[in-house]
Amino acid sequence: MNRIEFLKTLGFGAVAVGAGQSLLTGCMNHDMAEMSAVAPTIQEGAFTTPLPLMKTVAEGASLKAGTQTHAIVPGKPASALGYNDSMMGPTFRVERGVPVTIPFTNSLTEETNIHWHGLVVPANMDGHPDQLVKAGQSFAYSFTLDQPAAMAWYHPHPHMQTGKQVYMGLAGLFIVDSPEERALKLPSGEFELPLVIQDKRLSAAGAPVYNPTMPEIMVGYMGDTIVVNGVNAPFHPVATRTYRLRLLNGSNGRIYNLALSNGDAFHVIGSDGGLLPAPERVSSLLLAPGERVDLLVDFSKAALNSEVFLQSSAFSGVGSQGSQTFKLVKFMVNRSEADPFKMPASFPALTTLSPASTAKTRKFAIGDAMHGAGGHSNKKSMAGMHTINGKTYDAARIDESVALNSTEIWEFDNSMGDEPHPMHLHGTLFQVVGRSGGRDSLMAHEKGWKDTVLVMPKETVRVIVRFQRSGKFVFHCHNLEHEDDGMMLNYEVK
Ligand SMILES: [Cu+2]
């Protein structure tokens, strides 16, 4: 049974779903590929807005979630959400091992919280969906980080509201620094550029609009306007030297195939959880929602006054969202400078987790209710199409119990599925052991610590995880529509 037949079985054709109905009804007449054809075509902007750089703050800085006015498109200030009245919140920069306290105030009209995505923090500081901060209330997050230098991020995590709150503007970066990383003398200061890539749908007034239809919940809510660091189509002047680009895919559902418009290769030096053991030279790279990648891009051979775009190149395997090549940000090579950067002779050694040391292998069938998710989920409503082992999220249920300090293999099986699922674990970092089916190999940026791994249709991905924090955490698909639809489970470490 394919998904269309499944939807018919559920009686979707006869159910009024508001704005989604005509789309859905239309889909009924087409095949699966057509059903996925809801990724809007990207409308590229003019690349005349200067790239905003987020304010950098230290430990102790406070955060406030609230409504703000922000111009995604120049000249069109409109209502959005944000931390500290900004579409991208401040970038925290914190030294490994230093105690961190971040006072948080919820100035929204609804509950929210903060999840520190990629930071291994105590369970009661992790922004579990149970730990909500009511409207008007405050909470002080505090933790001490003992993990490699990396670029993490923070965003809300209230169940069924995460997609909307992130999409409307609540997100920010969190960089962990260490002496080991500084010793490498990577490009820093103005030569280190954090970039958050998102896609939005905007109202005529320029405000982000979040109202996914049923088919859009199926594949993820995608926009037609690319937003980098909070604005559409920015440019940034660069010198003829090597830049460190630290990228987050902060989109709800869209995957990007990152590449340079001149076709040049670039080096991947890090991923979600820190540096790779060695640089990897690639000419493109798939980055899924929630994933980060640390790149070195060499502009030293670019002609003066030339333009180089970071773009998303067309890619296959995920339906319409991969069918288009579009530009993300324009780099204008506007000055000639000697490039002092030398690729380090070696990178800090990576502590490799050994599959031989694992206590257990857990298998998770991921997908929608009819594909590879462990059977029927017995739904009474249209919600909960996306499942893990046939289950949707239940706050009161512990789905997996894990022994503290144990090492396990977790296997995400999307072999029967037809949608990509970036799987994310809270409370730990992991290493990718292998991938079978689909792309059938480890990607360049999967050779270091990760917290989110892209499992494409037909793929099974195995990760090795050590559980060093006790308490209750969630793991879930980081396609935020899938997550809010229930593709999330609890696990408890004790
Ligand atoms: Cu998913």
TrEMBL record:
It comes from the Bacteria. Keywords: Metal-binding, Oxidoreductase. The keyword S-adenosyl-L-methionine does not apply. Coiled coil: none annotated. Pfam families: Cu-oxidase, Cu-oxidase_2, Cu-oxidase_3. SUPFAM superfamilies: Cupredoxins. Residues 70-180, 224-302, 383-493 form the Plastocyanin-like domain. GO terms for molecular function: copper ion binding; oxidoreductase activity. This is FtsP/CotA-like multicopper oxidase with cupredoxin domain. It comes from Rhabdobacter roseus.
